[in-house]
Amino acid sequence: MTYSFDRAPDRRSPDRVNKWTWYPPDVLPLWVADMDFRAPPPVLAALRRAVDEGVLGYELPSKALSETVAGRMQSLYGWSVDPSSVVAVTGIVSGFNVAARAFGASRKKGYLIQPPVYNEFHSVQANTGIKEYEAPLLERAKGNILRYEIDWDAFEKQVSKARVFILCNPHNPIGQIYSRRDLRRMAEMCLENDVVIISDEIHSELLLGGQKFTPIAAQSKAIAQQTITLVSPSKTFNVPGISAVFRTKPTRTCARNMRVWSISSGCTSAVWGCSRRGRLFPASATIGCMNCLRISRPTATLWWTTPGSTCPMCGSRSRMPRTWRGWIAESWCGRDGSQARRTNSS
Predict the structure, then answer these.
(1) Are residues 72 and 105 in the same domain?
(2) pLDDT for position 111
C-alpha cells in the first residue's frame, strides 16, 4: 500500500480545538506527538463501515480485539501474549496512573522514573500521592551528537526506595530505544527489589535507521510476571483521538492486587482494524472518571464516585457533582470499595 506524505490537511478550522487553534497563529505546537497526516486508508475505511451501520451504542472489547493485539505482539516481536491478558484502558497516562496507585499506594514506597521523561510522568505524584524518585539519565555529548545513558549507580540506589518503576521505552522525549541488555539489567534490579514495572511503549513502532525494539516483558517469563505493558496504535497510525490503548495484565501477585476494567464508550469503540492476524489494531474502550475522560466524548462510560473520593483509574480526586449518574463496572473505588456506588446510566 502506498501513502503520500505530501498531503497535509489544514486543521486550523476556527470551530475546532486542537494544537493549531489552541495557540496564536505564530506558535508552532511541536510539544504534542500529533501528526498532521491523514490516518492510513484501511483505518479510515473501517471507521466508515462502523459509522455507516448507524448505531453508536455501547460495546465491550471483543475476543477478536484481544486476539488482534496479542497477534501483533507475536508478529512484531515474537512475544507470545495470552489474549485473555489484554485489557483495553482509557489511555497511556491514565493507565500508568492507575497501575502506580494500585501497586504503590499500599506501601511506604514511591515510584521511580528516568528524567528527562515527558511531563505526565511527573504528575503521578500529584495524582496518586505516591512519592516520586528519580534516576536521571546521563547526558553525553560528542561534537553535535547528544546521547543519554542509564546512570546505573543512581538506578540501583533509587529502585530500592520504589514499589513501582515507570519505564518509557522508546524514551520520550529523547527517542532512545533501550538495548536488550539494558532492559534485562533494569528488570533484574526491579525483581530483586520486588518492584512492579509499568512500561509505556506507545512509540514502539516508530523506528528509524533499522532500529529494533524489544518489549521489556518479552525478556523472560519472570519479568513478564512483574510487568504491565502499555501499548497503543495512536502514535504509529496517527489516531490518538480514538483513545485506543491496551495493557497486558501481569500474573500471580500483580494480578491479585489490581482489578481489571474494560468498558467501552459508544462514541469511541468503532473497530478500525482490518485484520485478526495482527496487521492493524482495532480500537475500543474508554473508562475512568471525568479527569480520565477529559478529552473523550461526553457520552463515554464514566466511573462515578462520591465527591472527594479517588478514581481507581487515574488516582485523581473526584470533582464530579453528587447528582452525576453513571456506571461503575466493579464495586471498587479507593482501596476497599467503601466509596463506590452503582447506579443506572443516564
Answers:
(1) no
(2) 96
